Queue: 4 jobs
Job 1
Amino acid sequence: MHSAAANAALFVEALYDGLYEISSRQATGPAPWNFVNSVLAPTGYAIQPPHLVIGQGRAPVPVAERVPSLDEVANERIQRSLAESERLLNSGKYRLAVQEILWLLETVSTTFEGSEHEDGTVTGKYFNRIIGDLKRFNRGRVLGEVVSWMEKLHGYLSSPTGGGIRHGAVLSDSYELSEGEARLFCDLTRSYLSYLLHEHQRLGLR
């Protein structure tokens, strides 16, 4: 591995050979490829035994690292949740990755409680009511349209016969979330989070 360190592909190949040999000799079972791939993710390489796959790495939709209208505790909590969702995604734990970022969307939405708009004040205390108020008080505006899309995605992911993420899934349904679907849901949610945080600052909320 030391001699292959100058070439990323050769290094990953040597890593695969080493882990495979160790697991074969010591009967420890298959190597933890999900964990290995989570470490390799930033490089764009992934191991799908016996193949080395190139071009898997992709930067997630960016979300502001610090929002001035939120305190440090809130900003840190947002960044921790984003990082955890990305870690789960890169580890192949797709359902948990989407669950984590959906929780964050619900959490960020609560910062709009009490916000004042031209047509009224948000009185809801949890996601569905807050989003409903934002949509009702911003009809015909960008905020109203975006929260409508957000509401539809949240509803689909919450339904046992839909995404099966938030309220469980139909037990007899063997469908499992694919990596592409999980990345789509995470990226969509990250884009909504980015927009909500921008609106939070624009509206001067605290």
Job 2
Amino acid sequence: MLIHDQMIHNRIIMNFHHEYPVIKVLDAVGAMIDNGQNGTDVVIIDGYDFNRGAIKDIDQIKKFAKEKSVEVWFSDTIYPNSLDEDGIPKNLNPFIHDIKTVLTIKPDGNSLKLSFVKHGAISQESHLCLDAKTLLIC
């Protein structure tokens, strides 16, 4: 719980409208990091619309991540019949060479099954699952 509590204590949540340009989002996040959030390791972009996204946006985000020495994680919603033959969401296909890891979370009875459908150059099945109610490892 110590790591969880530290993450909750140190997290900052910023909200931006989907129409807001990526470069302005990165400027705002960069200013936050530069002005007091030193030690930032990960930036999570929840709700980025890969269906409307552009390669140039991803290039800007990769450049930002390198300059700030942070990892960038995205969330994506998977809809029925939206996976390709490798299990990767089809809306990620234009960006797949720029994405290091794709982790899917699928309902499986009373648990959520996690699978790495891309991790570097390999695909591997994870034996990790989460309890659907508590999100604790089951």
Job 3
Amino acid sequence: MNAPLLPEILTRQARSAQADLPLASEGIQRYLWEGRFGPVLIEVKDGRVFVNGQAVEPADARLAGGNAP
């Protein structure tokens, strides 16, 4: 990753025809990570984390339920 990670600034590695959306919204934190395999959108809403729109469960919650990997 060579693009800076700033909460309200989107810096792309290359030009894109897609319109940029604002990263700042009321009650939602968004981070866009440009990685080797493409962009990853990380959002935090009401204390829950979503990656590319899918909810992410904390590892300690999974381990407490006996579903260790």
Job 4
Amino acid sequence: MAGSIGALWEVTKRAGDRLVGWDRLVATGKGLFGVAKRLAERIVSPLRRGDGPNKFRLSAMDTATTTYDGDDGWASRPPAVLECPRCGGDIPQHHARDDIDCPHCVAEFSYREFPDLELKHLTCPVCRSEMVHGQRHPESFDIVEWATCNGCRYHWEFKHSYS
């Protein structure tokens, strides 16, 4: 065994700058390690949050989804875009308790009138994409009860009792 290692070493020394023997093995190992490291970074990078000690985004426990991030409760509802019943324009409502004022005409509504207006879509607070939304109990509630972003998998749930 020692003789074969010595012979390999001699071949390596005589080869000069060319990679043969142990050098080739080491270079291949480093290359494979680099590829594996870059692959792992690409897999983990969408999950990284980057602020604070918790480096990963997790869904809200109450939502029981497989999303990366999430919230529940009306106070944390994503920004909404409503249709103005007067001019047909888009009305942004950034927070659930903000008054609803049309930027295109003089229409003004209280936040309590949200269920009476047509919801066009909710905007994802993480990536600003349009969210898919719906109702689970249309016979009990006349407001949106959930929304999911297909871009970043953020999920929001309306929190209510089931009685």
